[in-house]
Amino acid sequence: MVYLGLDVGTTGCKAIAFGENGEILAQAYREYPLYAPQTGWLELDAEEVFSAIEESLREVTAKLGGRSPVSIAISSQGEAVVPVDEQGRALARSIVTFDARGDAFVPFFREKVGEKRFFEITGMPLSGIGTANKILWWRENLPQIFEQSRYFLCFEDFVLFRMGVEPAISYSLAGRTMMFDVRKENWSSEILGLIGVDPSRLARPLPSGEMAGEVSASFRERMGWKEKVIAGVGAHDQPCGALGSGVVKAALAMDATGTVECIAPAMNRLLLSEEMRSNNLCCYHHALPGLYTTLVYNFTGGSILRWYRDNFARWEKEEAQRRGQDVYELILSDLPEQPTSLLVLPHFTTTGTPYFDSHSCGVVVGLKLETSQKEFVKALLEGVSLEMKFNLKLLQDAGVVVERLRAIGGGAKSRAWLQLKADVYGMPVESLNVSEAACLGAALLGRKARENIQGLRELVNRLVRVKETFVPRREFQERYQEKFEVYQRIYPALKNVILKGEDKL
């Protein structure tokens, strides 16, 4: 059997065909442009996105040599929304997650609902990124788009609709919209009433792994698929990655290092405490029914290495090209084993949880004439890891148990970084046999829908295996704990200095 997993991100989509043992049979990737027509606006053309998806699926199909998939499900970016007509044609560009237009409506919800009650309903701290705010922007600024739209769809439900399936959205992705009652597992009549949207204009919320429907014959014909294809309900991309990395029981967490560094734990209960809300920690459905998750993240994440590569690694880039080697392998080779004498605040972009401070900036403390290039590189990794240790502490203080991490993403390729994380976090970090966790998670949800699998956790545990475990080294763990005590004081101490400096500039 062939099971398709589709990951629809902000700048590109990936389609992967998996076999019954989780092995990759074929894959394809396509990028699409992200538009910024005005300062603070970020948009996708949903028609371009869907064309890229079709191209990816056709390429995968061609590589399968005549074999056809039997199921498909989608791992989707959160919050982004598309207004569509009866046929699913986009009526305007999609407003994506970090578009700033939604910020203007935060006071509206604060007044009408209140931050505490908003969090208790949706599991999302009140902010401008939610889908509800984006729909409100159309209502207030482009009323013709608001009135003409048959549906307002996120990318999971948009793609399903274009495949000929009645729009369905996972509890997981619906939880990112700030319109979903996370307790009742349905659209919130209170919030929909405030924004003037009838629930019939939104997709059906369903648990991940349920059957959404059957891909239409016309779409199958365009893709060259000969057999019936079941469309399963997928998930938001982070919980989908958690499922695909085997994070299917409490105390386990996914640590994804890509452009953004994100940790997503599995939780047995819905946790909507004041400690969670005040630290901007969400709580919503995991991709495995019966579990919940939250997210802590640093937006600089792995992009700090890209910044270093682009600005300081000219020799490594030339040498990597000459050897036919990944440039990051050279950058991360021969790092000093001992903790560095530097402290790096990795706020090169908006900070992420818990502050979401767009005014903060990156800081390097402790530079000396004897500071080496390799020490500087290691300090960058230490900075990101210490920031995530701070976020793990926030989770612990809120009652979220994390005892072991499973690493995915580009950062998981570096054994040096994984060992560093274990030393800094003070807990085991595992590398996996899985290289494409989000797509695998989606493919497993489609497989569950087609085969009515009751033991999805058991299937995941069979397919996802630990390749290597990095255990904290006591000496380094103690030294990083001492370093962490100092690290926690950097941002509070410099916050006012940074803001005053920006005001003068």
TrEMBL record:
Domain Carbohydrate kinase FGGY C-terminal: 297-446
Matching InterPro entries: ATPase_NBD, Carb_kinase_FGGY, Carb_kinase_FGGY_CS, FGGY_C, FGGY_Carb_Kinase, FGGY_N
Keywords: Kinase, Transferase
Entries under CDD domains matching the protein: ASKHA_NBD_FGGY_FK
Pfam families in UniProt: FGGY_C (PF02782), FGGY_N (PF00370)
PROSITE patterns: FGGY_KINASES_2
Protein's UniProt keywords contain ATP-binding: no
Keyword Transmembrane applies: no
Residue ranges occupied by any Carbohydrate kinase FGGY N-terminal domain in the UniProt entry: 2-244
GO molecular function, one term: kinase activity
Domain of life: Bacteria
Family under the similarity heading: Belongs to the FGGY kinase family.
Full protein name: FGGY family carbohydrate kinase
